[in-house]
Structures are given as C-alpha cells and as structure tokens.
Amino acid sequence: MSGDVNHQIKLAARPVGLPKRTDWQFTETRVPEPREGEVLTRVLYLSLDPAMRGWMNEGKSYIAPVGIGDVMRAGGIGEVVASNHPGFAVGDCVSGGFGIQEYAALDGAQLTKINPKVAPLPTFLNTLGMPGMTAYFGLLDVGLPAAGDTVVVSGAAGAVGATVGQIAKIKGCRAIGIAGGAAKCRYIVDDLGFDAAIDYKAEDVRKSLRAHCPNGVNVYFDNVGGDILDTVLAQLARHARVVVCGAISQYNNTTPIKGPSNYLSLLVNRARMEGMVVFDYASRYPQAIRDMADWIGEGKLKSREDIVEGLQIFPEALLKLFSGENFGKLVLKIADA
Amino acid sequence: MSGDVNHQIKLAARPVGLPKRTDWQFTETRVPEPREGEVLTRVLYLSLDPAMRGWMNEGKSYIAPVGIGDVMRAGGIGEVVASNHPGFAVGDCVSGGFGIQEYAALDGAQLTKINPKVAPLPTFLNTLGMPGMTAYFGLLDVGLPAAGDTVVVSGAAGAVGATVGQIAKIKGCRAIGIAGGAAKCRYIVDDLGFDAAIDYKAEDVRKSLRAHCPNGVNVYFDNVGGDILDTVLAQLARHARVVVCGAISQYNNTTPIKGPSNYLSLLVNRARMEGMVVFDYASRYPQAIRDMADWIGEGKLKSREDIVEGLQIFPEALLKLFSGENFGKLVLKIADA
Q1: What pLDDT is stored for residue B270 in this prediction?
Q2: Predicted local distance difference test score (pLDDT) of residue A295
Q3: Closest approach of chain A CAs to the CA of B266, in angstroms?
Q4: How far, in Å, CA of A42 to CA of A30, rounded?
Q5: CB contacts < 8 A (A, B)
Q6: Residue B195 has pLDDT above 70, yes or no
Q7: Rounded to the nearest 5°, which phi and psi values hold at B305?
Q8: Bridge partners of residue A40, in order along the sequence
C-alpha cells in the first residue's frame, strides 16, 4: 500500500449557491502509514448527503464547518488494509468518517465494524446508516406517531424519506409521501407501500394534501423546507408534530432562507415543530440497527441506492441531490470490494 | 332595567390592516329580559386583547370568527342585575363573554362568579383572567422552565408578558423582557423584578440578547412574531422551548405573515417551537387562580392595568394595543360598580 497514491478532494472555497467545480481542489498524496492505534482503510463507498452543503458554510451549526483546504467530510464504507488497533484485522469491513478520498488512516475508536452478511455494503450507508438512523429517531422519538395517525414526509423517495414512510407503515400509520416526478411517486406507493404520493412537480400540493389527509396531518417529517413546509403547516391536525430534519430546498439559497409564513398554524392547532440531529442518538444506534435489520429481513423495509462511480465525479454527483435527479440514496463508489 | 337602552358595538366589515372606525357599527337596543336559566349582567369592565384582531378575520382559526353584524366578542366583568339561574343572585360579581355592550343576558353556565375581595375587579381581566392563565399555562406547561434557565419574553410589559416574566422569577429562572420604550423597560426591571429589559425601539436586540443571555435562551415566550422572533431564534440554547402565544406584530399585515427565517435554529439546537391556546386548560384554571392569588398576596406577582373609559371609544382604544401605546393590561371601563 505504502507508496501508492491516495486521491483526495478538498474544499477549496466556500460556495455561494450551488457548489461549483472551482470550489473543489483535486489533490493526490501518498497513502498514509497507520500510526499506533490507527487503522488504514481502503474506501469502497462514500455517502453523499444534503447535509454536506451545510458543512461547507462558515458559521455556527450542529457540527464544525469543513475547513478550507481540508479533505471534504464524508461517511463511508471500506475495507481494512492495515491495522495497528487490536479491534480490527486486515479484511474487516468498517464504516467511518473517511472523507472524499481513497484511503484513510483513522483511530480505531472512530470506526465501526460491519457485517457484510447482513446486507449489501451500500445499505450500510442507507437504511443501516445515517439516513436510516435519522428516519428512525426523527420519526419515532420526535414525531411520536401513534397507530392510525397520518404521517406526511417530504423528500419521500430520498434516503431518509423513504425509510420514514416505511417505518410509519410498520407502526400502523397512514403514510403520504411528497416527491418530485411520476417515477418516484410510483416507486414509493408500489414498491414501498406508502398509502399515497403527491408529485409536487405536477400537482397542487395543497389540494392533494387535503384530499389525502381529510383529518389533517398528525406528523410531518420535513426534509425540504420552503413552500412545501408552508403548505403542510396549513393542513396540520390538532397537536401535530413537525419534525425539522432538513431543508434541502433552501441550502443553496443566495438570499435569506424562506421562513414558514404559516407557522401560526402551530398556535391554532396547538402543534409543535422540533429539530433533530441524528448524532444525539448515537448510544441507541445498535437497537435501531437491530430493528431495521429485522424489518429488512421480514421484507417490511426496502432500500434503494443510486450508485455513481468514481472519486473524480464527486462534484457533479453531489449536485444530483439538489436537482432531485438522484433516485434513492446517493452513493459514490470509489473502488471494488 | 327593562326599557333601558343597551349600547352595543357590532362588527360591520372585515378589516384590512388596522381596524378603521367604519369597520364598526354603533347600535342601541333594549336591555334584554333574561330567559329561563339566564342571568342579566350590567357590564363594568371589558378586556381588550390582541387576539381580538384575529377574531375579526374570516377563516379557520382556534375559534370561530365574529360574524358581520354580531356584537364584537369580548370578555368582561359585570354585576348581576337579574337572575333566572339558581347559581347567581342580584349583586353578584361575574366574569363572562359579554361582548362590547352595556348589558348581556347569558346562560348562567357561561358565567363564573368572582370574589371582589380577592383583588380589584380589573385584576380579574389581567393576572386572574385570560392573560394570567395564558402566561401560567404557556410558560409552565409548554415552556417547561427549569430553575436556572434563561427565559426571554416579548411584549414584556403587556398583560401576558409581564406575568410570564414574574412567574419565571418565582420558578428560579432568569427573566429577560423585550419591550418598547424606556418607561416599560424600567417598569419590568424596577417594579416587576425582571433581571434585564431590552428596548427594541432603541437597542440592537441581537446584541443585547447576546449580552444578557451569554449561554443562550432556554425558553422564549413569543407574543410578537416578526423580526423579534427571528432574532431570538438565532440565540437559542440547546433543547430550547419556544412558546408561540401570539404574533401581534403581524396581525394587521396586509401582506403575508413573515415566517421566521431562522427556524432552522430549531434543528441546529434540537429545539422546539410549540403553539398554545389558553382555553385548552380551562379545567385547570381554578388551580392556577389559587396559585396566582397566593403570589399576589405574597407580593411576588404584580399587575398593572391601563384603564380607558367609555364604550364609545372602543375602536380607538383597541388600536393602542397595536401601536404599543398601552402600558399594562388594556381594560375598557363601561360603568361604575
């Protein structure tokens, strides 16, 4: 390994609006030697997530921004190629925060061993990874769905949204998904078992919501913000819970974020809007992963990955998230297993 | 009584922006005879509240709008002058939803007897009435303040806000009030015991909040909405609770309500924004009134009323709420006790 080249992508500039190719720096370095306690991993798959856009901005958030000149932060799956940590052996499959690069030497304490027999590797970046954990804890701990509730989720064909709707069904709720385009809408109803889908690109979301949610929305899991958030707020049921998970429609704004004009619906309906960050639930990931793996095994929880290949296309691949072009969890394949 | 004139003010038109005099109709009718089960009350004081503006609008809200041609809805205090209900006798003091008029015949079940020895009558429209109940349940049940928390309240010299800050102090919190003008700011600190006041008309609210809340805002009780809500959202502490009680800055908008651009602070800080409507707590008013009366007796809870006199000036008096001209709970005196 030593002597091999490690290709990396670093953040070169803080983007204004959508990240441009010039916001990135393509570099190469030597594959590092793992130090005492470290594990050298060959990266196989990297997770591309809407949250990455926020990490590129300066300023206070739930996590420190990526520094200019730093390898872009990214979670991934890889194979151990050298280990100076007693918990890991060559050939182990691991997940960790490798960054957009081909090799990473990290402290073993920062890695999690995964069992490739449980599911295909990309699934560990989807239902069994951060998106799955976000859906699980966001819906169950913040959304507090009760059997019979109507649960609406936006970005419903995305990694988080697709899982939210399926968990809602598992918990005895009605699941209504908002997604862009007929193919995604068909997918969440026909393949994932949502009760209905609303195509925000083709339908009047307000009218469709009223039709599909005659008794109002008990839980709204928001991944998108903007006009869709506002529209759903106007349809809340009494004591509704709005889970603020993300706002992908607003991340590339060059103007201020659009606040929800209909927020006084919270007052009228004695409803609640609450934010969540998945990392807070880290101590409970093992239980969630057991539940999710069981549901996958029972055929109740399906996942779909949109796998694009090659480290060098990272800048363009990332943009698929913001155009809505990806279909399923967006994963960047770096190397063959 | 019978044969006497009952002056009334009815809603003549749905206002656009601030209510104009032509939105009201001044009428007179005969004082009604109480029917079986009814009580005829001579109205002494009426409560003027920001929420009245919402009741004048068409459309779904937490309460039906006042109909065009109906006597304007208002709560008040009065004296029983005739009773066909076994629970009430001539001379009793009662509170109820009398409307903007001099006499009202209501079913006894809609009235509450009050004891004028406990406090001056206008106090029953303030700390011992709806504003007090709103402050009590909004802060304690929705805001969930813990001793040591920093509690910020807007409209802090108003009927609800002044009580919120004082209850926060009683519960061992730091209380920071946002109010308009030096006199109101002095009042809430010097007379009511708030820890600090921010004069939004004279200060940079953001800078002052940062100075007074170095560890962030744990509870924000919002009566005003608009820019102040946005500014406080940016200063939330982890797991903060934002109580949405009102949005007086937005009630007379002729453009859409300004949504809070900084709502993603809820995500970053794992915080919650929740609406409340005081009527939901009706079954627990007696306990709250006992607590509040005790605190008044112990000198821990003070109230101030801004009393204006004469049914005919109702239209102009109401506008004082929106200009911020009133100082303390705005009460319209209709007649001498």
Answers
A1: 97
A2: 97
A3: 5
A4: 13
A5: 108
A6: yes
A7: -115, 145
A8: A82, A105
Nearest to B322 by CA among B38, B33, B48: B48
Per-residue pLDDT reduced to its tens digit, B121-155: 999 999 999 999 999 999 999 999 999 999 999 99
Q: Which residues of B touch A261 (CB under 8 A)?
A: 256-259
* Distance in Å, alpha carbon of B181 to nearest chain A alpha carbon: 27
Give the separation between CA A162 and CA A37, rounded to whole angstroms: 38
Domains and CATH numbers, chain B: 5-126+304-333 (3.90.180.10), 130-279 (3.40.50.720)
pLDDT tier for residue A195 given thresholds of 50, 70 and 90: very high
Of A230, A228, A235, the residue nearest A214 (C-alpha)? A235
Query: Pick from A138, A146, A122: which is nearest to A47 by CA?
Result: A122
Nearest-by-Cβ selection for A280 from B258, B260, B270: B270
Which residues of chain A does B251 touch, with a Cβ-Cβ cutoff of 8 Å? none
Q: What is the pLDDT of residue A87?
A: 96
A245, A257, A268: residue with CB nearest B62: A268
Rounded to two decimals, the pTM is: 0.91
Query: Which pLDDT value is given to residue B254?
Result: 82
Chain B: residue nearest A272 by CA? B274
**Chain A residues with CB-CB distance to B270 below 8 A:** 274-277, 280
Q: Which residue in chain B has the smallest CA separation from A261?
A: B259
